[in-house]
């Protein structure tokens, strides 16, 4: 079989001859270069060596002794190393050359493109020009590797990574191995592809998949809302022109909170003796 047909895979080749800049490896019919920068091994002619074949930036087939878990025949988790507008996301699979997830395989809206450090479950694909690209795992692949949740898992806190995103919701694979769905009504903002999110299980379905909410529990939300108001007060030296009489639109614009959430958080701060209101303003009480 031609070396071309092994791009993106790990293969066993023989050291055909030595060169100043590395080694030429052969399958008995074709040669491929193993550059000295791509190995920490000292090789001899006739020695058999296991390498991963890829295409370099100029489209030439090259070899490396760094053997990635992710190939055209296997899936694995890869970290996003860079994102370039109009091109796509680059992922580190464990070799020196990062692999491209092209913009055509990413969400339409760039706001949900992955960012550096996000994790994606991927495999590799080779196009007609022998270029290697990233392919994100589809639903059936995630289904194969997932474990079924039980009713005992209901209401548990979970965390995991988004593996698919759409207007209607987001799909998550959790640390426990659960496959889940986050309806658009159960997220305050749409998470990115590959983003790590935390939430809770709000339903366990008959097939063992879960429904997840990313909206904080009431007490957690109240804590966050109160902290948001306090932080704003401190940034304004303890006084702000907002109170429980303020217009809902003004509150939304400033705090990204509903009027009801704002009033609950403000009421809590007043009850705790941290703030007081006067003529449409709210003031931070000085600690005695």
Automatic annotation (TrEMBL):
Entry similarity comment = Belongs to the CvfB family.
Q: Which residues form the S1 motif domain?
A: 6-66, 153-215
The record's listing under Gene3D superfamilies reads:
Nucleic acid-binding proteins, Winged helix-like DNA-binding domain superfamily/Winged helix DNA-binding domain
In its UniProt entry, the species of origin is given as Cytobacillus depressus
Query: Which PANTHER family does UniProt cross-reference here?
Result: CONSERVED VIRULENCE FACTOR B (PTHR37296:SF1)
Entry protein name: S1 motif domain-containing protein
From the UniProt annotation, give the residues forming the signal peptide.
none
List the GO molecular function terms. Answer: nucleic acid binding
């Amino acid at each position: 079989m031609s070396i071309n047909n092994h791009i993106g895979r790990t293969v066993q080749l023989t050291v055909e001859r030595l060169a100043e800049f590395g080694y030429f490896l052969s399958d008995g019919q074709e040669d491929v270069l193993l550059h000295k920068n791509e190995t920490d091994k000292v090789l001899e002619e006739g020695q058999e060596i296991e390498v991963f074949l890829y295409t370099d930036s100029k489209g030439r087939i090259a070899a490396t002794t760094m053997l990635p878990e992710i190939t055209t025949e296997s899936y694995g988790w890869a970290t996003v190393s860079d994102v370039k507008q109009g091109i796509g996301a680059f992922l580190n699979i464990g070799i020196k050359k990062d692999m491209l997830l092209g913009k055509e395989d990413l969400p339409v809206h760039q706001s949900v493109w992955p960012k550096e450090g996000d994790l994606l479950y991927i495999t590799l694909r080779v196009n007609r020009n022998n270029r290697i690209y990233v392919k994100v795992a589809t639903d059936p692949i995630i289904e194969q590797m997932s474990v079924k949740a039980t009713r005992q898992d209901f209401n548990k806190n979970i965390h995991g990574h988004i593996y698919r995103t759409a207007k209607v919701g987001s799909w998550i694979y959790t640390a426990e191995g659960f496959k889940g769905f986050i309806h658009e009504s159960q997220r305050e903002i749409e998470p990115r592809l590959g983003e790590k999110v935390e939430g809770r299980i709000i339903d366990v379905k008959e097939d063992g998949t879960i429904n997840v909410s990313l909206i904080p529990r009431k007490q957690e939300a109240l804590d966050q809302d109160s902290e948001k108001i306090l932080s704003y007060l401190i940034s304004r030296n303890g006084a702000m022109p907002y109170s429980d009489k303020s217009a809902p639109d003004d509150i939304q614009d400033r705090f990204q909170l509903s009027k009801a959430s704002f009033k609950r958080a403000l009421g809590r701060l007043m009850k705790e003796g941290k703030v007081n209101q006067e003529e449409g303003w709210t003031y931070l009480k000085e600690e005695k």
